[in-house]
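Troubleshooting entry. The earlier prediction with zinc ion gave an output that would not parse, so I re-checked the input for stray whitespace and re-submitted. Clean input:
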Amino acid sequence: MNSAAVHHATIHRAALVVPICSPPIEDGAVLLDGGVIRSLGKFHDVKRCAPLAASVVDHGPSSVILPRFVNCHCHLELSWAMGRIPEGLGFGKWLKRLMSLIHTEGVSQSDHERLGHIARGLELACGCGTGLVGDISNTPYDIQKISSISSSLISNKPFIHNFLEIIHPQTDVLALDPQILDAGDDRQFLLRRSFSAHSVYTCSRQALGAIKEDCSRRGYPFSIHVSESQEELEFVRSAKGPISAILESRGRDISRFFRCSTSPMSLLSEEGLLDDKTLCVHCVFVDDSDIDKVVETGAWVCLCPESNLFISGRLPPVDTFIKRGVKLCIGTDSLASGTNLSILSQLRTIFEAFPSVEPWRLVEAATLGGASALGLGERFGCIAPGRVGALLVLSDVDARAGEIYEFLCTEPVEERMKPVDT
Ligand SMILES: [Zn+2]
């Protein structure tokens, strides 16, 4: 080990270390060096094997260290719409209100204002312990400009996978500018970008295939809203209903780009779009046959429960997903359908509705599950040697190893959380 690395080595000690990929460790410690996790274990073992010059930060007798959370699905650019649409409208009316807000206010925002909203959303997400974000946007943004607005971005260094969302049925938008995708890639270990599809009702089957192919070629996940609403199901089955009316009002010729199926998941399956790099976001209105397809293909389901309750008052069948072995990750969706960007808040909502679910499964979905769904499971989501030191410390926690997962799924601890300095 060279002298520079020794100089930066720090042992972080806590009453409890929760690695996620291995059991919690009481009186534990994590050795960080150069922003990377070098070792973990009981404090005395980590200290004995650490470089002599390593400093020790003791976070105290009621502290917990865990990996930062992963928000696999949000729309930071819609942060300005918080509190602008009432709860419980149902999807059709909610979407109509959102589109009207975007067309009256959103489109007139300057680039600086738009970046400011993204920065504000990012600050809210980071403030709730998030370290990795799967962010949907309709236009690309410059991460350097956002860092100049958001001090949180500089101090928290979240990693962002920006899904550039295609909401147009034609495939020619993919020819937009290939450099857009590459521009942000890993320049500062902060942002990478790929295309994504909004949903099966906004893109033609051909466009969905082209987007998926582009993601596969780059080795990136393919993200899509799936079975979010009863209205989506109605549209996929009959090409009728509120979504049809909205598309027609936007000048879309439905008969030219859309062909029905029995469900959104069936449509994705027919086009060969489900695999272990596909993120099916929401999956509220799914049946056994849909879940079979998810299990068979190893696709991920991203739960955004508070958004689902906000819009339609219904939750996805989380207990069934877990029984069937569906791979889960967690998102918040946007502030246009919620009041916070806290992943822990999503966990509390799920656990309250499904108390029979083992809490560790939810915490895993919120960390390692999310990182794996975004294709970053080798770098984020758990505390293990070689992973990025994107850690959180919770203070004043009265929970021992056997209780910590339930504690995280029940107690609002966002205020007692801060990122571990690397
Ligand atoms: Zn969404």
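This one parsed fine. Residues 31 and 39 are 5 Å apart (CA to CA).
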